[in-house]
Request: fold
Amino acid sequence: MDELIGLFLDYLAVEKGLAKNTLLAYRRDLARYAVFLKKQKVSPDQVTRRLITDYLMKERNRGLSPASVSRQMVAIRMLHRFATEEGRLKEDVTEALDSPKLWKHLPEVLTVSEAESLLEAPGRKPQGIRDRAWLELMYATGLRASEVSDLRVGDVQFEEGTVRIFGKGSKERLVPLGRQAAQAVRRYLQTVRPKWAARRPGDEALFLSKLGRKMSRQTVWAILKKNAKKAGIRKTIYPHILRHSFATHLLENGADLRIVQELLGHSNISTTQIYTHVEQSRLKSIHGKFHPRP
Reply:
């Protein structure tokens, strides 16, 4: 592969007259690609479309922007086209590749055991009872942090076992509450909220601070990070992590993608499809770790 890349760069310099900086960028990108192929023990004529896609996805997951991955794809495509035209490869496997500009960064999610540890972290004091309630609610429903902050007491419908949510664009949706989440929220409403609400009567927000004020989404995020640290979770914690975990765990257990789309309030199923990539990534990781011939 190194020889092929050298010939290609000479071609770009002599035949195409590309600028020095452009050639350096192509050299860096193709050097990374060559290292990847060496690790895979794959020669240029053994490269497949899937292998290139896996490489580009790996680059995306290490933090590169879609624009940077797109630049890498251009370099790889030009290399394979050159090699095909020169008769060094029989087929150009890059012709039908999707553009990385359409790809999204795969979100990090909690494992089921990490989610359970997080839910157990808040403790039994009044603030812990409140925090357990909204953590259970977020994990059970896939709510956004802003949606949790905006919930009113009347939005939780215990008899129906649902939560009424007004999401983006004021679109209303009903999401099943779940038994454990319902128990946690009911306990908070019975033992904690009345005392805090008395300090600021008339506020219908479901989750309140000790001063009786509506919890902001910034407060929700700060408390999430605090409890994750308490639970010993070392992953990067961000507001959507419970929402992403909710969707991923549903799909892992066989939920239909259309149902997950409806529960999350996505208007377009393409937004929900990112979670199928998360599941595929997890399965590939498990296969690579445990299969005797990965």
